[in-house]
Write a structure and sequence with these properties.
CATH architecture of the largest domain: Up-down Bundle
Shape: globular
Strand content: 15-25%
Low-confidence stretches: 265-294
Number of domains: 2
Oligomer: single chain
CATH superfamily of the largest domain: RecF/RecN/SMC, N-terminal domain
Radius of gyration: 22 Å
Order of helices and strands: EEEHEEEEEEHEHHHHEHHEEHHEHEHE
Helix content: 25-40%
Mean pLDDT: 88
CATH class of the largest domain: Mainly Alpha
Number of strands: 16
Structural class: alpha/beta
Number of helices: 12
Largest sheet: 6 strands, antiparallel
Strand order of the largest sheet: 2-1-4-5-8-9
CATH topology of the largest domain: Glutathione S-transferase Yfyf (Class Pi), Chain A, domain 2
């Protein structure tokens, strides 16, 4: 599977643009702000239905326009079949008429989101990935969703049902608090969230276990999964607090995870943050105090890791993600590298260069000099000015 063509209409900075890609490697070169990342974002949206940059779909529509179209042609190398994919985003009004905010089409036929996502899969590697280590739990949950939605239809379904159910349950909690509504009306939504939330947790756990057990020469990293399990007992335990806050307090929407590294030297300056790698250590950031001094082998890199260790951890994570997706779909996904070579040292650039030929890879960079000359001669180059 590879992406042969991409057409953009009113997407971000592009009024109209067409790009053709090599089935092997394509290098997109141009200065900052010219729109290189916009191209990778469009490809990512085709795979996940969502942007890795925008909080709202409207942000992807070019200013003062009512709709954007992302069209692509995907070639199946086994069957030689060409599949045409399209996503249309609107502001809700087109030419004075109400229009759906998002529409998915395969070969011109309208599809549901859950039937569209996964038609093309991609793994994105960008400088902003460091935020997975340093930023909020919501970003780390979103990362798990981006990976699993592309490769697991059951996960897509469970997540969609869970998110809709969560909104309804929170509205009911608000009415129980403000209007004195009886708690009996929560029973249906409790059952729905427990069923689908447990599935989400299971799938996330499988992904994290795959990464933790995958052999790697990059570094001795592990992911600690801080899962917020949902069950009847836990919902009952927090019943009073949930009504007071009108918020569901347990479930995968409260999950978090962190990367730890085996530490082989003296304790890092500022205190000992080493934590055990077993289930007892899966606690929230706010409970860090009870996690300290448990084990002198591991360090939480979000708190005490150097910038270099954090970058190395992201390389480890993304290469593992690439292998996970490959195993799940039985073919290589498109690898998207967004201006990462300037962020990596020579050793880690070399690691990425070794992986690039294994699948279709689309690379953006401000300077082709970061790419080895021999490699550059074999790649298709698109220059943006």
């Amino acid at each position: 599977m590879f992406l042969s063509q991409l057409s953009l209409q009113n997407f971000r900075s592009y009024t109209k643009a067409n790009f053709n890609f090599s089935p092997d490697t394509t290098l997109i070169v141009g200065p900052n702000t010219v729109g290189k990342t916009n191209i990778l974002e469009a490809i990512f949206v085709l795979g996940t239905g969502k942007s890795f940059r925008a909080e709202r779909d409207l942000e992807m529509i070019k200013f003062q326009n009512e709709l954007t179209r992302i069209k692509s042609e995907v070639q199946n190398e086994v069957s030689s079949e060409t599949v045409k994919l399209e996503i249309m985003l609107t502001t809700g009004m087109v030419d004075g008429q109400a229009a759906p905010g998002k529409k998915y089409l395969v070969n011109g036929v309208s599809k549901r989101q859950k039937d569209f996502i996964g038609m093309i899969t991609s793994v994105l590697f960008a400088p902003t990935d460091l935020e997975l280590i340093t930023d909020s739990p919501s970003l780390r949950r979103k990362y798990l969703d981006f990976v699993l939605m592309q490769v697991d239809r059951e996960y897509r379904r469970a997540l969609s049902v869970y998110e809709k159910g969560l909104r309804q349950r929170n509205k009911l909690l608000e009415r129980i608090r403000d209007e004195g509504l009886g708690r009996g009306q929560l029973a249906f939504w409790d059952e729905l969230l427990i069923k689908n939330g447990s599935m989400i947790t299971l799938k996330r756990e499988e992904f994290i276990n795959f990464i933790n057990y995958l052999p790697s020469e990059i570094g001795d990293f592990q992911i600690i999964y801080d899962k917020s399990e949902i069950s009847e007992a836990r919902l009952t335990k927090y019943a009073r607090e949930e009504v007071a806050s009108a918020t569901t307090l347990v479930g995968p929407h409260r999950d978090d995870w962190k990367i730890i590294i085996r530490h082989s030297g003296d304790p890092p300056a500022g205190g000992d943050s080493r934590i055990d790698s077993g289930p007892a250590s899966t606690a929230k950031r706010g409970e860090q105090a009870r996690m300290t001094n448990i084990n002198n082998e591991y360090t939480d890199i979000s708190l005490f890791g150097s910038r270099g260790e954090q970058r190395m951890a992201i390389v480890w994570l993304k290469l593992a993600e690439l292998e996970f997706v490959t195993q799940k779909i039985a073919q290589r996904p498109v690898l998207l590298l967004d201006d990462i070579f300037s962020e990596l040292d020579e050793k880690h650039r070399h690691l990425i260069m070794e992986v690039i030929p294994k699948q279709q890879t689309i690379i953006t960079t401000t300077d082709g000099g970061y790419v080895e000359k021999e490699f550059l001669e074999k790649a298709k180059v698109i220059e943006l000015k």
